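Example S7 (structure tokens).
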């Protein structure tokens, strides 16, 4: 085994890893499952010498490749654009998203609605998203306020934003274990906990006090005004474009 082989293996692993992340984040995941079933049936038909079925599946596969390129044209285009910009993942949030998010947070703080909102950056938050309900909708102030309205099934737990979309709500985040912060309530410890295990920016609105704080890389900010929050989020937005 030479250094070339090691580099080759590393390169292939990197490509496979990014392909997996790309597939896991888009609607291509179901397609991959479908393709695996298709290939298994084709393989079986071939092994069992079901000539007609194998012929049909073989020819349909050629057509299918072109059909896939057409159907997944938006994803492929997005992927190639990001590859060109040197960023394989969309991270952060866009300008309109920041505007809607800050509006929602400001209103929720004024109304004393407790809220916990994580903005995914480079660390994938899929494992926490699956603990809640899939939302997959464009972020809007009205949507966020609706999610955190007391008495609704999804208001408990955290909401996850990926780019300009709300991906999931009612999610369970890991609680920070820090002894010196035991005095904090669980909503704030969950915000901090998630920021300790990821690079997410986690916004927390206190139901008790109506304050706005942000947890980032294991640090919980002091109370922020809505415009201070906007400033921080705009920095994140600039970093991601
Ligand atoms: N692990 C967790 N992941 C996500 N959300 C959580 C988690 N633990 C608690 N929460 C949320 O926090 C709420 C309880 O907040 P609690 O009052 O204990 O915390 P707090 O930090 O004092 O917040 P507040 O200032 O809003 O009262 C729960 O109803 C739930 O919505």
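Recovered sequence:
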């Amino acid at each position: 085994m030479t250094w070339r082989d090691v580099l080759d293996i590393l390169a292939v692993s990197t490509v496979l890893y990014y392909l997996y992340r790309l597939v896991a984040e888009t609607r291509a995941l179901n397609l991959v499952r479908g393709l695996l079933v298709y290939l298994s049936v084709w393989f079986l038909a071939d092994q069992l010498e079901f000539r007609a079925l194998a012929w049909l599946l073989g020819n349909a596969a050629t057509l299918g490749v072109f059909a896939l390129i057409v159907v997944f044209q938006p994803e492929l285009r997005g992927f190639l654009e990001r590859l060109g910009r040197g960023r394989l993942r969309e991270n952060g949030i866009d300008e309109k998203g920041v505007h809607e998010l800050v509006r929602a947070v400001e209103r929720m703080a004024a109304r004393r609605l407790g809220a916990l909102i994580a903005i995914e950056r480079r660390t994938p938050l899929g494992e926490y998203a699956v603990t809640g309900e899939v939302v997959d909708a464009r972020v809007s102030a009205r949507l966020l306020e609706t999610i955190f309205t007391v008495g609704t099934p999804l208001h408990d737990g955290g909401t996850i934003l990926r780019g300009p979309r709300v991906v999931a709500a009612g999610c369970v985040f890991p609680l920070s274990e820090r002894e010196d912060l035991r005095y904090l309530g669980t909503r704030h410890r969950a915000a901090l906990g998630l920021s300790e295990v990821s690079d997410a920016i986690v916004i927390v609105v206190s139901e008790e006090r109506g304050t706005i704080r942000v947890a980032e890389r294991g640090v919980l900010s002091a109370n922020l005004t809505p415009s201070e929050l906007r400033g921080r989020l705009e920095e994140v937005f600039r970093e991601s474009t």
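Notes on this example. The chain has a mean pLDDT of 87.
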